[in-house]
Every structure is written in C-alpha cells, then in structure tokens.
Specification:
By secondary structure, the protein is mostly beta strands. Among the domains are: about 160 residues, no CATH class; about 70 residues, Thrombin, subunit H, CATH 2.40.10. It is about 5% helix and about 40% strand. The chain is built from 5 helices and 38 strands. This is Ribosome biogenesis protein NSA1. It comes from Candida viswanathii.
Length: about 500
C-alpha cells in the first residue's frame, strides 16, 4: 500500500510504502520527496490537502497548499509520467487572510473548494475547455464545513454550509441557467420581511431583507459577467433553534452558542445530518421545517466527521476518541467504539467497502470491516479496524517523521478497502471481541537520514533492483532536469514505480 503523506515542516510530500512482513509484523518504508519548494516558503506554505481520484480512466492528483493555490496533475495511461494540467494560484491567505477549508470531488466531475469566508469555486472537469471556465460563488461567511449534493434530474447542486456562530444554510446552483443571461427584472421581485423565530444572542439584526421572488428558490445573481466572476448566492433555507437549545450553560456574564461542526447530505432522501460542537447529532428535513426533527447528545466532544454508509446508516466521530454508527430510521446508535487514540486529529478518513455487504438479522447489524486512518497532533499516524461486533483493532501506530501531517492519500488507488485488507489481513474470527491488539512495526523501519546539507536524503533500505544512486530529487514534481521544486511539468512515474514495486 503506497501513501502520499504531507510533511508540514518541509512543505512537501513523502512517499510511504506499508507492506505486510508477517502475520503480526508490518514493514514501513519512507521513500521519495515530492513537491518540495526550493526556498524557505515551504514551511509556511505546506500542502494542506491531497486528493487522488480516477476520472475518465485517467489518474488525477490534486494538491492544495496553505496559501490557497491548487495544482491538478493528470496521468495518461499510455504515458509514464504525470502532467501538470492546471495551476490555480489563489493566494487567498497572502491577500485577505482567508484560507480554503474544503477541497473535494463531486460525482467524479466537479472539483470544488470553499474558503473560510465563503468563496465557493466549482470546476467542471468534463467541460473545462478554458482557464476561465470555472464558476465562483459567495455563500456567506465564517464557513467551517461545507457539503455538496448533485441532482442529475434537475441538474442542480445543493450546497450546505455551517460554521462558528452561524446557522445551517442551504443554497442551490442551477447548472442549466445561462451564466450570461439577464438577471430577473425589478417587476419580478418583491420586498418581503422574514422575522426570525427566535432571538439570536450573537446576531445583531433580527430581520432579514429578502429581494428574491417568494415562489421559487433564489438563483445566483447573474449580472452579465464572465464565468470566472464572483456570483453572490442567497440561501433559500436557514435552520432555526430554540434559545434554550442554542445556548449552552448560559449565565448573566457569558453565553456559549452551539453551532454545527460537521454536515452531511443524505443521498436519496431530504435529510441533512449535522454534528454540533457540543457533541450532538442533529437531523434536519428542509422540506418540512427549519427546526431539527431529531437531536441527541452522543459525545462530550465536538462531532467532527460524518459520512454516509448506505441509505440508512452513517458513521461519525468526535474530535478525540469515539466513533459511532447511527441508524437514521430508528434514530439510534447501533454501534459505538470508545477509547480510540486518534485525537485530537488533523486528518481522519473512513475506508468503507466499495460494495457494502450489510445484513440485518433482527436488531443485529452485520458488515465488512471498516478501516479508519488518522493523523494526530502529536505527529502519529494511526490505523484502526472496526468490526461489526463492536470491537476494534489498532493496526498501526507510528511516527513517520518529526512533523505534523495535515493530509494523507493513497497513490494509484483503485479500491482503497481492498488495499487495506491486503496489508492488514482478514478479520480474525477467533479474535476475542473484548480484546484489541496493536500490530508491531518492523524494527528496520526506513528512517530518513539527513546529510550535512540537510536537503538530500539517503535511506537505510533500498529495494532490490533500485541502484543506490537513486535520489529523492528524481521523484519531485519538476522540470526535465528534475530539480527539487514544484514549478515543472511532470513526475517520472517509471522511477516512482521502481521504488514502490517490490
């Protein structure tokens, strides 16, 4: 299993290979360094997010740096290297202090990013015929989490945002609308004042002015601008919460507001599930009401991640040590995994089976093992395996190098779950569900050794067939001279495969 790991102190990527040495022993090799900047800006402009995906049988690699710049690399199956396909230099932090909080792919077609101040950029990878073909929308401010949902039938994208001191808001983007079309005339709009249903302790204004037509969802304000121009969106739905539920332990001197720290659209339904900073799971149905239809406290820490497993189950985690599986139809937590040592975490990802095999016998839930990979604030990488009997196994707990790791992604991944099973093995049916074990890490873990210059790296272990003269610089995203910078055009995939394939 080959991973791309972000090294925050170096501002680069490291290639890490994890393989099975024996039934209870793993071998970890730290290999080449990619995308390292020549100057000292790498430390302050580290890689915050790594995203890999397959699109039209072409491998794609997306790199997001702290300053907001995004690089998209593609690999043609007939060519042995990666091409730098797009380089969007946003530089948000240098200009406004803003930063990107979300980067993801929607339906294997739309690459989107959203900043903390609500700058949502959607790039259509199929119709990306020019540098100006992306669309930019403003969707509010103080954004902490965002989720998108594509409706192929209506050809629209629903956007849900939440954040500190903000309610959950929904927006809609109509992909059918001509960007250069005229905005609605003044006669089509009416003034309507919408009073809030509760007093908001952190909101100055208690009245919202709506200039959009009342009978339809407000579209983007298209103003005869370019496709790359900023389009302001107005939310068509906003959550409401009672005062006693909105504030947490209020007193005469202090009020702590409760906002949503995670959000997830539920496919094939109208539900939206959120996690709050006070450890609550909250379900909304925007079609029926602005108030929650369900709310329950499930943790003493904030709920940081929520992911849909199938049409009736979601998996969630708090910020420190708990993962749970929640059934939507019964409004119950069917499985809990407590005491896990993955938090506070910088990065957490669920590796679910590609083809879920779930059986419900009575009240018992059965599914294939789930893997959880996380990086912690104390610079560790941990991997857990979750079983359907409520037990878990700590598969990996290792400190790769003395640096924080903001993001990890699999390299050349077809089925992430299959690769995890190949490395960490099948479920042990004889394993006591009340006991969990930690797999050992091979004592000959390949640790990078710095030379006097402090730039190049030598390795204690070189795979068979790879000459000792192979250096990390051959693996950088660089020009044909293969110097250590990210301003060039390709990665030598042939050399990469030689170092990765045993």
């Amino acid at each position: 299993m080959n991973l791309l790991v972000s090294n925050q102190d170096r501002g680069s990527l490291r290639v890490v290979k994890i393989s099975k040495k024996s039934s209870n022993m793993l071998h970890v090799d730290i290999k080449g360094e990619l995308c390292h900047l020549n100057n000292d800006s790498g430390v302050n402009n580290y890689i915050a997010k790594i995203l890999t995906f397959q699109f039209q049988n072409i491998a794609h690699l997306v790199i997001l740096r702290k300053n907001g710049s995004i690089q998209l690399y593609t690999k043609n199956p007939n060519l042995p290297y990666y091409n730098l396909f797009k380089d969007w230099k946003n530089n948000l932090t240098n200009i406004t202090g803003d930063g990107i909080i979300a980067l993801d792919i929607l339906d294997n077609q739309y690459l989107y990013s959203c900043s903390r101040e609500g700058k949502l950029i959607i790039r259509d990878l199929i119709n990306d015929d020019a540098d100006e073909s992306y669309k930019v929308y403003m969707v509010g401010n103080s954004v902490g989490k965002v989720d998108l949902k594509l409706d192929r039938f209506k050809n629209t994208i629903a956007v849900a945002i939440c954040g500190k001191n903000c309610d959950l808001k929904l927006y809609e983007i109509d992909l059918n609308m001509d960007v250069k079309g005229q905005r609605p005339g003044r006669s089509q709009a009416e003034l309507s004042y919408v009073g809030l249903l509760r007093n908001h302790p952190l909101q100055r204004s208690f009245t919202t002015l709506n200039l959009n037509p009342r009978q339809q969802r407000p579209p983007a304000s298209y103003r005869n601008l370019d496709r790359s121009s900023v389009l302001s969106l107005c939310h068509y739905w906003k959550s409401t919460t009672d005062m006693d539920q909105y504030t947490y332990n209020p007193n005469n001197l202090e009020r702590i507001s409760q906002w949503m720290s995670s959000v997830c659209f539920i496919e094939e339904s109208d539900y939206i599930i959120c996690g709050s900073q006070m450890g609550e799971l909250v379900i909304y149905n925007p079609v029926e009401d602005t108030a929650p239809i369900f709310s329950a406290r499930v943790s003493q820490f904030s709920i940081k991640t929520i992911k849909q497993m199938d049409d009736d189950y979601v998996i969630f985690s708090d910020s420190v040590s708990k993962i749970g599986i929640f059934q939507i139809s019964t409004r119950e937590i069917v499985l809990e995994y407590q005491g896990l040592e993955f938090g506070p975490f910088l990065f957490l990802e669920y590796i679910l089976p590609s083809m879920p095999k779930r059986k419900v016998s009575g009240s018992k839930l059965s599914f294939e093992e789930i893997y959880v990979m996380a990086t912690t604030v104390d610079k560790r990488v941990v991997v857990y395996k979750l079983l359907d009997n409520g037990s878990y196994e700590l598969l990996l707990d290792v400190k790769l190098f003395d640096s924080l790791i903001p993001s990890i992604s699999m390299l050349h991944s077809v089925s992430e779950h299959y690769q995890f099973r190949a490395v960490f093995g099948e479920v042990d049916k004889k394993h006591d569900p009340n006991i969990y074990k930690k797999r050992k890490v091979s004592p000959n873990l390949a640790i990078p050794i710095s030379n006097q210059s402090g730039i190049k790296r030598e390795y204690e272990h070189i795979l068979p067939g790879v000459p000792d003269s192979v250096e990390a610089s051959y693996l950088s995203f660089a020009s044909s001279s293969e110097s250590e910078n990210d301003q060039g055009e390709f990665v030598d995939d042939t050399t990469l495969q030689k170092m990765l394939v045993k």
